[in-house]
Design brief:
By secondary structure, the protein is mostly beta strands. About 15% of the residues lie in helices and about 45% in strands. The strands form eleven sheets. The protein has a 22-stranded antiparallel beta barrel. A five-stranded mixed sheet has the order 10-17-18-13-14. A hairpin with a 4-residue loop joins strand 44 and strand 45. Helix 6 runs antiparallel to helix 7.
Length: about 950
Amino acid sequence: MKSIHHTYFKQRIYFIVFTLFFTGLVQAQQLIEVSGIIKHTDTHKGIAGVQIQVEHTQDTAITDQEGNFNLRTRVKIPFRIVIAKEGFASQTSEILSLSSKIAVELNPQNTIINEVVISASRVPEKIMKSPIAIEKIDIKTIRESPAASFYETLENVKGLQLLTSSLTLKVPNSRGFNSPNNFRFMQLVDGVDVQSATLGVPLGNAIGPTELDIQSMEITPGAASALYGMNAVNGLASLQTKDPFTSEGVSLYFRGGVNHVDHISHKTAALGESAVRIAKVLNKNFAVKINASYFSGVDWISDNRTDQNPNSLITANPNFSLTNNPAEDLWNKYGDERNNRTSVKVNYNGKPTTFNVSRTGYYEKDLISPEVKNVKFDAGLYYRFGDQWRTSYVYRYGLLDGTFQRGNKIRLQNATVQNHKVELTGKELTFRAYMSIENTGDSYNLKPLSDNLDLTNLSNTNWKNIFQTTLQDRLNSGVNLNDAFILARQEVDKNRALPGTPAFEQLKNTIIGINNWDSANSGIAGAPATGGAKLEQKSRFYQTEMTYDFTRFVKVFNLLVGADYRLYSITPDGNNFVDFDRPVSERNIPLSDDTFGNNVMYQKYGAFAQLTKLFFQDKLKVNLALRADRNPEFETKLNPRVSVVYSPVNQHNFRVSFQNGYRFPSLFEALSFVNNGNVRRVGGLSKANEGLGYLENSYTLASIDQFTSAVNKEVDGGLSQNQAALKNRNLLTAANLPKLQPEKVTSFEIGYKSALFNSRLVIDWDFYYNVYEGFLGQVEVAVPKNENIGSDNAVLAMLDRSKQDRYRVYTNSNSKYKSLGTSLGIRYNLVKNYNVNVNVSYNDLVSTNTSDLFITAFNTPKWAVNLSIGNREIIKNIGFTVAARWQDSFLWESPLAFGNIPAYYTIDAQATWRIPEIKTSVKIGATNLLNRRYFQYAAGPQIGGLYYIAFTYDLKL
């Protein structure tokens, strides 16, 4: 680890020396200033937010509320400036002297035809001629969105879903296979991957831009691996922040609001967010930028009592049921899951009967506090030299509370992510190096918390014996079966810690402070917990990347090449990640220096080349890209992309593309080693399996359930347990898990973009067909202790949990998953500045070719519709937007919970009042205006209405 830090800081020193040396080679030129005003051709009033850029340089300026600008440059007169703003036709103007203030009038052009994006090809290009589907949300759209925060504007993007885990944590996805911990969707902020390494996903916008600093968002649905490498198989969101050289000044933001107005799960609660942005150009070449924000509120509550186990009370008769299901497994209750289920045998109605019974567990609402916060800070130093070159250093910090869901629910408490980035950019070269530091703080896992709370009352064995004895006694005394189960549970839980009591809070705080999820098993009522629930994960990852445009050397076509390298370094905690060089029995025992061994390393690197060529008077654009990615744990993978864009006229653009995408297993999928509820969740790499045998010597849980049911039925019919087990041994299926491999997607896409009726109508349509191979998921298996599967003893061990080890393993699917979808977006500019936007998306899993060990988890509604109408200035300085969203019902599948998600619709609305005299805007809005409660995924929170008012103040320095 020391060598890693040493190398990192050595590289930083070399970078600074290089920058200073290069700066000295650049001949200083006199700074000149061009000032002027940009007006509307119809109203002759100044236009705010217009970009003025010196042609072929990075020297830019933005107009203020009155349309005025001051542009600084070192380019010698004469030179040309480019004037651009969405909704207006771009213009160029030649600067011949500085004798007077220039004045330019822009013609309105209600279209996105000239909008530029960079994410699709990593070079600037017109969005209409992008080789793949891409959406752009500019600052104008963000300001006019009714979403409570700019990040939530993603919810209305064509083809995109945004899952809400918490007020502070929202996760995007596109084109199916959705989850609240989405490993398949990448998020960048100014080119930096902002994922939390050990959790494996971006934590929404926890470390991203503030409301004041966001400039635009570009969203690429579908595979982007050819240019961005692994983990961008389902899509990419790229967020760009404001440039301090062109967006100088002091800005303040405040948002206050309320939610839980219906008192369904919480009394009415306040939320608030404050932010400040300071950007200053200190001299002709040097600028600084500082952002800070603080958000707090009361989170949405997850308290859905849907039972996932309604028909498993009695194994001999699956249709047997009671008013209160003793074997229930509720969505938002923990400690009542499959591994907490036991079989009790009683004499009922004159014959032996076996019932399944779950331990009682605790509701999610009793295990976490709904108060959440998000603190963000970033600061940057920016220096430019010459006409093209600039360098920068940026530091970002985010602190987050929220609820995160993967195999279990995780309460994130004071979790932090930090970034350090250095960057050098020119006309042809981009070099970037950054480091991310993660610390989960005071976070904890709800499943081991519930298990260990219950186990401080009674061990599983004692709990079963008391429950079984009490149930039989009550039945013998003539109590009906339903009431007998209730009385048996009351008896066995009479000394259990109860939510809301001081004893419960003290015990809970003790457990979440212990970093060891192995269950307590003292069996003594009131005994302190020996098992814990703390999530103690610390990691760093280091990324270096560079791209270079060789076009001026090649000349016959555009050629962009790039390379990147990433190294993960995880501090083993003995609980989630371990040092695999240590013996299995010692991995969760700290060494004399209080560490758990050496850091765990995981790395990947890759390179790509992209060729672009125009034909037939620029009507045909051909784009070819090829990327090679390497992880020492796997073979090298190639990601090709071929795309063609045909534009017979500027108004009509047709595209077709083919590409491969690969995803290396995340840290958790590859290297986890977590004992959680007596089921160890393990990565799929061979090193994690050494000495355990779950890859080659295990039975699948699905077959064990069938086997157990058949055995219990035979026992109730009079056979001994051993006789019944050996009679039904053929029901047990060997897992034979394959060697872990990267996940692959092959994607075909066609699309069409057009601008019609004098560019008032914009149509954007796409269709995709994806084939997934080696899909990554989890399967639960059982390994007989000291036995080989197939033997008599191994078969009998499947009836006794003490004689088997359970593992939930990340592995590859045997199936090919085929999915397809289409989306259509229409934007129409009506008279008097009214704008209508509507998009419709369809996604479906169409086939698999074999049965699989684990669930598919497509988790995406077939149909989703977004509709909005707005007017930026319905009367002077006052505008509005109303947005409606609907999606149909679908089946949600995950290791934690499954079930049907009902269809729902929401309506959001906002009105904005701009007050130019005091450089302020006021926004009043609501999301889920009608307060129609809905949930987006199984075990997720129930989301209600949120009502807010926001103030923004901008002072140009």
